[in-house]
Amino acid sequence: MLLALLCACTLNQGPGSQPPDAGQNPGPTPAPVDGGGSGAEFDPSELDPASHGGTVTFESIGAPGWYPSRRDPETGPCDAYTASGCCLSKHTIESDALTPWDEDLIVTLRGPMKLKQFAVYQPAVESPGPWNLVSSWDERSPKSSQGLNFSGNNTEKNGFSGTIGTECLVDVSTSEDFACGPGSLPYCPPQGSGKKTWGWSGSKLFVMLATMPHAASLGHACSNNSNGNWFDAPWMGLSVGELVRAGAFGSCQCYAKAPDKWYLGDGCGQFNVFEVVNDNNEFRNLDVFSTNMFGYAGYVGEGPCGSRCKVDSLGGEVDLIDKSKVTEAAQGAVASPTRGPGAAFRRPVSGYRYFLVLLDVPTRTVQLAVIHPLSVPAPVGALLPGLPAQLDASTIDAVRTLRLPR
């Protein structure tokens, strides 16, 4: 999802540049939250027949490199200034362990979408051991979220109801305040435009129970322009927290190394986890997700399947599509930085699915899964549907090694 950036500058990489940045503030470790162990409730009309599910596994993710990061000009160091006086420094990354997706990440949700549950798990320590429920939201008590902050689409005033209309955007982050102002790292101006918060750092597992009906049946639209490039195109994206706190594509950001060449997305980039593409051209397909991540390390994944991937002939049991044959994938897809998955998830328009996003730092693995509530595989039965307060490391391993539909 590429949006135009407004700043024009290039970082100085020559001999006169400042020393590489020693590292970003990793942020606080979210504390475990109360609750868990409560499966979702459904009306009969909310469940379509059971489907087979699907997984896409990205292996060997992460690479050394750098991206531009905003700094307080009073404390620097500044490798470059934009025309507006914004101070940017080279944030140097030496590790290949899931970088930069091991940094603090914030979720962005775009409608049309309706959620029943949203949960985040993280390890108690970054080593084999239990994982704790650190953030949770449930539609049965929407004003009682724990460890979460919602912003956008009037959620700051009205709270999050679970419904996101077409072209509406909601950012989801931890409830831990990010102290903007002098000396903040990465820098953001003093808070005058609302609360700023941290994302989730290190390993994390996102669990989202959602359906994504077509725009006409959901309502609550932020735009009725059916010719818009986001119309009827749900999306779950992950961004380095700095990008979101900067206003996501404002005049001073980390998205691209040379922001006048924003289309390269070669800075901190973005992870389009589940994205329906509507560009009103041959790439448009409102029933199939594309999945890709890009940034300083390059492009990983695959773009949209386009009009070639018609799902009309596929049965409702199909959640993962073999893009070459436009049939159900024979097994869960496995990808790497040098090999795309060759498969795409199908958008659930008439029933709910669990969307799992595991980012496991020690194994450099990103695991994506789509699971029907009526067809939860036994290996992940300790996670779904109960969403308990704590998970054994063996359950995380089961999520990571799951291969669906077979």
Question: What keyword list fits this structure?
Answer:
406 residues; mainly beta; 7-stranded antiparallel sheet; 4 helices; 22 strands; 5% helix; 30% strand
User: Kindly, what is the distance between the CA atoms of the first and last residues, rounded to a whole number of angstroms?
Assistant: 30 Å
| Alpha-carbon Rg, integer | 20 Å
The residue fraction in helices comes out at under 10%
In total, the number of domains comes to 1
Structural overview:
It is a single chain. The chain has helices at 155-158, 215-218, 241-245, 393-401; strands at residues 54-58, 65-71, 80-81, 87-93, 105-110, 113-123, 131-138, 149-151, 163-164, 169-173, 204-211, 235-240, 270-277, 285-295, 298-302, 320-322, 327-328, 333-335, 343-345, 353-360, 365-371, 390-391. The protein has one domain (44-62, 95-401). Strands 1, 6, 7, 9, 11, 18, 20, 21 and 22 form a nine-stranded mixed sheet that branches. It is globular, with a radius of gyration of 20 Å. With 406 residues, the protein is mainly beta. A hairpin with a 2-residue loop joins β14 (285-295) and β15.
Summarize the structure.
With 406 residues, the chain is mainly beta. It is 5% helix and 30% strand.
Write the SSE topology.
Elements: E1 54-58, E2 65-71, E3 80-81, E4 87-93, E5 105-110, E6 113-123, E7 131-138, E8 149-151, H1 155-158, E9 163-164, E10 169-173, E11 204-211, H2 215-218, E12 235-240, H3 241-245, E13 270-277, E14 285-295, E15 298-302, E16 320-322, E17 327-328, E18 333-335, E19 343-345, E20 353-360, E21 365-371, E22 390-391, H4 393-401
Parallel strand pairs: 1-18
Antiparallel strand pairs: 1-21, 2-4, 3-4, 5-10, 5-12, 6-7, 6-9, 6-11, 7-22, 8-10, 11-20, 12-13, 13-14, 14-15, 16-17, 16-19, 20-21
Protein name: DUF2403 domain-containing lipoprotein
Organism: Archangium lansingense
Domain Cell wall protein YJL171C/Tos1 N-terminal: 56-123
